Amino acid sequence: MPAAVYDGGGVITVRDVDVPTVGADDVLVEVSHCGICGTDLHLVLGDHARPGSVLGHEWAGSVAALGAGVAGWELGTPVVATPEPGCGVCRACMRGRPSVCLRRDPPDYLSFRGAFSRFVTVPARRLARLPAGLSTRVAALTEPTAIALHTVTLAKLEPTDRILVTGAGPVGLLTTAVLASRGFHDVTVVEPSPLRRARALAVGAATAIDPGELPVPEIGLPVAEPFTVVFECSGHAAAAEAALDQLDYAGTFVFVGTGHDPTRVNHNRFIVLELTAIGAFNYDADGFTSALGLLASGALPTDLLIEPTDITLDALASTITALARTEIAGKVLVRPEVSA
Ligand SMILES: [Zn+2]
Ligand SMILES: [Zn+2]
How far is CA 184 from the centre of its chain? Predict the structure, then answer.
């Protein structure tokens, strides 16, 4: 089967690899579409992925073969894979945070067998059926939508919140759209790319500004029109630091976007304004069910969140570069084929 294999040194090569063997409790899934995530960009452009690995974790597909011990699934059923549930008894699980269950196997970000390939295998217990009417193409947004829902959950928003979203790439756009779907419309997006600013307005932001328009506060005081909550979706330290300066007293800062350079946090400002910082990593306990329901409801502008033209495996490397240059606003979906 064709797969986009990471060869090291930032190089991705499309080649034929063996179809993965299906264990007794596994299901073989034929991938329909797999989204390109910021994590994939970091793993490739930062040369963090292990050579020989196949990336891609935002996918949907259909059941193609069943392990010997699997019952209850039919070939052709459209599915996504859900995360392993938490143990239910550790400190994190008891606090409703199964994403960071203390008894989870350590995640392997570097060498996992992902879905930039025609087939993947998944333990049958992790499969979820798509709701009626939801295409596998749109369902490829399930995982990032579950992340956006989780960030919004963790922020514990109030109806009166003034929200700032930094970065209008795929994560910031999806966060903005999820906020709008939940009734939060006082959302300002800060983003240097005019293309991405326009898309942010189209998916639900009330205002979109250039980072240069953000004011610098006086020491120990909020800016003139502060925000109560920031969702930092860019992963850029400078953006995060400028956004921290925009928070009001008792404001909440949510780190969503990962990035290479650590953010410098002005602890004096945190103390004097009594700010809260939150890291949002994965999903609510019911995150995939909620994400599938939200996507199937039609409440998200998926035609604006997903780029209109899907790519094939051979265009993955060049598209990763274009995404890193912010030449593309929305989520790019990969069809696991090779162009003719
Ligand atoms: Zn992702
Ligand atoms: Zn646990």
Answer: 20
C-alpha of residue 274 to centroid of ligand 2, in Å = 30
- Which residues line ion ligand 2, judged by CB < 5 Å? 86-87, 90, 93, 101, 103
The pLDDT tens digits for 109-134 are 555 789 999 999 999 999 999 999 99
pLDDT in tens, 137-149: 999 999 999 999 9
The two structure tokens encoding residue 9: 């040194």
Q: Which of 35-44, 73-82, 144-153 has the lowest mean pLDDT?
A: 35-44
pLDDT computed for residue 207 by the predictor = 98
Is pTM beyond 0.85 here? yes
Ligand that comes closest to the CA of residue 146: 1
- What percentage of the chain carries pLDDT values higher than 70? 98
CA–centroid distance, residue 109 to ligand 2 (Å): 20
CA 147 to centroid of ligand 1, rounded, Å: 8
Q: How far does the centroid of ligand 2 lie from the alpha carbon of residue 22, in Å? A: 28
CA of 100 to the centre of ligand 2 (A): 7
* Residue type (1 letter), 183: G
Q: Using the mean position of ligand 1's atoms as its centre, give its distance from the Cα of residue 239 in Å.
A: 20
**Burial class of residue 79 in the structure, from the number of CB atoms within 10 Å of its CB (0-12 exposed, 13-18 middle, 19+ buried):** buried
Q: Whole-angstrom Cα distance, residue 155 to residue 253?
A: 8
- Please state, in angstroms and rounded to a whole number, the distance separating the CA atoms of residues 339 and 314: 7
Mean pLDDT within 191-197: 96
Residues 335 and 312 sit within 8 Å (Cβ to Cβ): yes
